[in-house]
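WARN retry 2 of 3 for item q-0093 after timeout on previous attempt; input resubmitted unchanged.
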Amino acid sequence: MEGAVVLKILHWTFRRRSKNKAYSTGDEPGYLRRDAGVKDGNGTIAGLMDEDDSILDKITEGTEVSLQLKRTATESFTVEAIIDEITFDVDIDGGRPNSYVASFSTNGTFT
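OK item q-0093 returned
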């Protein structure tokens, strides 16, 4: 993919949902009915930070991204998203690698 930025992701989550509209009717008092709503999603990507290659050179909060989240060799999710926040985990004693978690929300289609 020309111009693509590839991140070494160690872990990811993706939550898909439908924002369904709830309503009540006189036919079924005391119970809600729902109409299917718009699709929405969010999740996280997580990885280790490379000391020679800053993650912030690739993504930052507000960055629009196209994610290919692979589940198996034959199954993946393609997600148009926007980065909401990035959390850094740094061990100042040098005992373990520095890592990041970037939260995202869908920004259009996902399959």
